[in-house]
Amino acid sequence: MSISQAVEAAGDGSGSEFRRGVASCAPVLLGTIPYALVLGAQATQKGLSTLELSMMTGLNFAGGSEFAAIQLWTSPPHILLIVAITFLVNSRHLLMGAALAPFLRDLPRRKAFPALFFLCDESWALGLADAKQRAAAGITPAFSPRYYMGAALAMYLTWASFTTLGALLGPMLGHVETYGFDMAFPAVFLVLMRGMWKSVAAARPWLVSLVVAALVYLFIPGAWYVAAGAVSGLLAAWLMAGDA
């Protein structure tokens, strides 16, 4: 059976569902901590205070765009450029939200809006995979808000806490990239992709997205590779629908 014994024979206990979300997110958190420290250290090297960094990670909560913003940060900062790049990098959330929308349809707004605020790559991947597993096991509703919030809040608190710690320790540690911490970033996403893996045929849109994003990254400056990868992957999935 599994999914915690089909969520304890569909009893769907609220406390156990929240704990199940936290437990599912735990391996991802171990990979998140290193690059949260890297972001915090980089921010202080760019002149941001610990308070400013904490506000950015707490209010924006999107690691990819925060790394991009830090790389573009100057004194004085080019605000419009940073806003545009942040929007571009975070545009993938439109696709992620669209994929999750059918499972959020029956939630009241007072629950749906917080769920969307805490949406990030990790909570989205875990929440969507769990909803599909519950649907396959015949559990209704397929989407478990408590499971999702367990994973999302664990991710949010870890991200905000360790980016702040990175900002505090950054001046003492120096360039933390030399320790190889930034390798944790792709490692986390490989783990998430492994959890969503179905077959080689079903993964072809991922390959198209990867190749297009890599080519755009190599030949076009800026963060256009994010949008190019997302759009090409979406088009590939549409064109290959039914082949997998």
Walk me through the structure.
This protein is mostly helical and 244 residues long. The chain folds into 2 domains: 13-195, no CATH class; 197-243, no CATH class. It is built from 12 helices and no strands. It has helices at 3-10, 14-45, 50-60, 63-72, 79-90, 92-104, 109-117, 121-136, 145-173, 184-195, 204-219, 224-239. It starts with a helix and ends in a 5-residue tail after the last helix. The mean pLDDT is 82.
Secondary-structure element string: HHHHHHHHHHHH
Average pLDDT figure: 82
Helix and strand content put the structural class at mainly alpha
User: How many individual domains?
Assistant: 2
| Oligomeric assembly | single chain
The helix content is: over 70%
Number of strands: 0
- Please state roughly what percent of the residues sit in beta strands, choosing from under 5%, 5-15%, 15-25%, 25-35%, 35-45% or over 45%: under 5%
